Amino acid sequence: MSFKETILHEALVLFEQKGIENISTDDLLEALDISRGTLNEIASSKRELVQLCILQSIMKRQAVADLVVAEAEHPLEALLQLLQLSLEEVYSFSPAFVEDLKNHYPWAWGRLQLFMRKLSQNYLNPLLKECVSRGYLQADLPSEMVVRLFINHLQGLLNPHLFPAYAFNYQELFKLVVVYYLKGCATPLGQEQIEEFTYRELAV
């Protein structure tokens, strides 16, 4: 990771944890341990910094998705891993970060929404169809409807009034939103693989 990539990553982590508007430029300089001149070489304004952070984050997410699909033993494992990673990441966003993106950085928010649509079209939907064709999920499962349900659930997790972080952890939500639902759609072969994945990934 280059110096610029490191700074963008660390800045995004701060934004996600505390919100964008809650962090001043001086706060950024202190937390990142860089000078104002160095920050200006990376981005000329806070708005540009947020945009660069989101763009880099999206590229990293796509690279992770490609790696998951390439390394998974079967499509159901890849599907479960992608949904688990997406849920964990979305649930880690602070409410302030989400509200700031929506209200003050619509371009960056739109890019994230576009990535979620691409995640559905390019990864989740094809994986679901492959799971059906290979006998992991029921043959009459409407893959596009299922993907839309999952994406809707993920977006619902951004509402802190519904799922406050202090009351739930992402593992509980993953079981509720993903595991139990897919078990109901799975064949005996698929249920066996879901049980194996759940035991391996969520074991304490």
UniProtKB/TrEMBL annotation:
Keywords: DNA-binding, Transcription, Transcription regulation. Pfam families: TetR_N. It comes from the Bacteria. Transmembrane segments: none annotated. Residues 7-51 form the HTH tetR-type domain. This is TetR/AcrR family transcriptional regulator. The lineage of its organism: Bacteria, Pseudomonadati, Bacteroidota, Cytophagia, Cytophagales.
